[in-house]
Design brief:
Blueprint: H1 5-8, H2 22-48, H3 55-61, H4 66-72, H5 76-97, H6 104-121, H7 126-135, H8 140-161, H9 169-192, H10 199-214
């Protein structure tokens, strides 16, 4: 598996199919093909641009036929969304793994730092990937969908993590939006600097300013 597959792999714990059964072997093979398609698509999107990449090129890079590709994805936009969903899975799993009594804002900072480090360790140009997703006008709808999904899934986990007497759906949703907005602000600063330095640095600075300015812990 090529390095960039670490981004698109679903990172939540799921029950693995029985490797000794025929259905289990078939499911594992199908998942490998699906991952290969996403991996190939993501590498090509970053290298030559989303609009310039054709479905045929993705199929060739994944070493499958065009017909096989369409069994898994109807459009190249679906390939990109599946890759983005892998990021959502990573954020949700990372938040669930944070210490139960940790301050929500600190938990959000840590999961976004973990995501930024995951992108760096993936072996692809994380700056080019981020720039493509967040700056290409043709991908605006996918970027908006990605952030909306982040907000929903983070809010759900935040709500579950709060003590029963302090649970607030509105508060959890608001903090999730603030957290994702802070990530986007830090990302904007990093992109404006053309990827110089680390995204982590901008995240720490942005969340520190957030904590100092509005004290989001008072939402609960």
């Amino acid at each position: 598996m090529t390095p960039s597959a670490t981004i698109v792999r679903r990172m939540i714990d799921v029950a693995a199919p029985d490797p000794t059964s025929k259905s289990g072997l078939r499911e594992r093979k199908q998942e490998r093909v699906r991952q290969d398609i996403m991996d190939a698509g993501l590498r090509l999107f970053v290298k030559q641009g989303f609009d310039a990449t054709t479905v045929d090129q993705v199929a060739e890079a994944a070493e499958i036929s065009r017909r096989t590709l369409f069994r898994y994805f109807e459009t190249k936009g679906d390939i990109l969304m599946a890759a983005m969903r892998g990021m959502s899975d990573f954020l949700e799993a990372s938040l669930r793994a944070r210490p139960a009594k940790e301050a929500p804002l600190l938990s959000l900072l840590e999961i976004f730092i973990a995501l930024s480090q995951q992108l760096v360790s993936s072996g692809i140009d994380s700056y080019s990937l981020a720039y493509m997703i967040d700056r290409d006008p043709s991908l605006r709808q996918y970027s908006l969908q990605k952030h909306a999904e982040w907000e929903d899934r983070i809010a759900s986990v935040l709500f579950e993590r709060l003590p029963a007497g302090r649970r607030s759906e509105v508060g959890a949703a608001l903090l999730a939006r603030i957290g994702v907005g802070s990530f986007r602000t830090a990302l904007d600063q990093w992109l404006a600097n053309e990827g110089r330095g680390q995204l982590k640095t901008h995240l720490v600075e942005t969340f520190a300013l957030l904590d100092k300015t509005i004290k989001p812990q008072t939402l609960f």
